[in-house]
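Structural prep section.
Before we set up the soaks we want a predicted structure of the protein with beta-D-glucopyranose in place, mainly to decide which crystallisation condition to try first. Input record follows.
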Amino acid sequence: MATALHWLLLGSLSLMIEHSVFWRGAFLIEGREFGWREWWKNTIIYQIYPRSFMDSDGDGIGDLKGITSRLEYFLDIGVGAIWLSPIYRSPFVDFGYDISNFTDIDPIFGTLDDFDELVDHAHDLGIRVILDFVPGYTSDQHPWFVESRKNRDYRNPYRDYFVWKDPKPGCVSSDPRECIPTNWICPFDGPTWTWDETRQQFYYHTFPKEQPDLNYLDPSVREEMKNVIEFWMKRRVDGLRVDAVAFIIEDYYMRDDPPNPNFQPSELATRPQYHSTLNIYSHNHPDHHEIVKSWRREVMEKYSTEPNYRFMMTEAYNTPAVLVDYYGTDDAPEADFPLNFQFMDLHAKDLSGTAIFNLVDEWMQNVPDGKWPNWVVGNHDNYRIGYRWGMEYARAANVLCLLLPGTPTTYYGEELGMDHIKVMFEETQDPWGKNNPCCWEEYSRDPERSPMQWNMDKNAGFSTAEKTWLPVNDNYKMGVNVESEQKDPTSVLSLYKALARIRKQRPAFHTNTMDYGIVSDDIFSFLRRPNPDESDQPSYLVAIHLGKKTIVIGDYVSTIRANGVTINSSEGVVEISSRMDRNGETVNLEALELTLGEALVVRIGKDSPLKTEL
Ligand code: BGC
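Run finished without errors. Recording the tokens verbatim:
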């Protein structure tokens, strides 16, 4: 445990020194040390969409040197790990998720040397680097696919690298192209089988036809992909976000997915719709867990030597009850956590304290004992929070994400309250928008991928180009940018920094548990308490107004007591208010007032001991 003197010393040194303590193995926090295998529990994971973060060479597209030039920003805002969406060689049909070389950097982003420099600099600052690992498919330009599609000759070493199938047996059509092997539909809508004239077979692609799926039944594919992980581990990558993991193995018997009896077709849609079938054979084959376990056991563990634990999180959209399987078991561990997308499908019309409670509680109920939760409010595949919940809740969303028990993921710009942009069809970049001219706005993910807003300069300081790959949101001129928000003590960024500090410094936020306070249509609130051996440390009430009323007043004391939790005072001190205008205010927890969209982080007990100032 760090002493007060220790903290005084650390506090008076620069943040950089604080982080280098972290790098040596365990980050010292008041009241608790996280071990070297747990670094990912005590930090925020920040998702960078590399095309949109920082452009160093003026071509209008972000790159690695750009990211390196901005690494100090993460020290300032309290982020200890960055996750980069794909940076590998790619024709960019799906903006880097279609990979033509898994072990090289695309020239748009730079070189392997640039990557090494980024890692070096990040590690010097105590920042971990997590890569997107895309195991399920390649680009159709990948040499493996180029070779595989040439012929079915058994001497072709790449023959079975992809999921090749003959026309469906029993199909009566004289045109083999009409005899698709199964009725499986792409998660973004559209077909999943493409006929190849040369091989006279279909190949399977979960996503666009330019992204053929790898065949994990071929042992060479399994070996190749382990080698890919190994390559990046050797380059000192600290962890992986495993992309689209539930799609890597399909039904061995090629059974059709049954129709979805509850499907409501969209009148506008022109392509087969994903939800028209129940995707039980195409996705989520149980055997894919064995593969993830083998990555953990055979590769990640091999490189997890003190102090460099290699972390893994998985991406799959499903119910919490299904997703928790990705934690694996004590004997056969898998990911450190499956990404938790509970908040993604919640939209303004359904937003309420009760709705948030239901989503949070469902996740918490399912997390196995001893495992660590995590929270996500946005990413590159979903509209930003302003569109989904409304900008008036953007601050509250950060409070939720950073102060619920577990590890938060921040999508770049959320810390500023960045909003989505509008992109017309002619300007649309995302294949899912382009493929659906009828209703591109429903599909396109361009709105949430606009360039990072750094300052008031041209293109918000993102790039010196005449035209950036996606337009910059004009609201950077109204102060939604890093530089302006740094100067404003009431900005979303100032709030974010305060939240990052409190979750790191106060033991109450270092556990994987919580208790609920008032939960109603207007309010979602919860209590964070330190472990019993740190009971001299303060507890916190986090109360958030997610309703539609202008003001709500609640008696938190009675509710918390009714929930069986003893609290030592009905008075509290607001340590952080989401608008940063009530910090320091003494409040009565029996009649605590919140205005619409407001969140308060209240230290319970006016005189609770504090070892350090925030
Ligand atoms: C990624 C998407 C991508 C898809 C297909 C997903 O899981 O997050 O951005 O479009 O994989 O490659």
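Observations: The two ends are 17 Å apart (CA to CA).
Flagged for discussion at group meeting.
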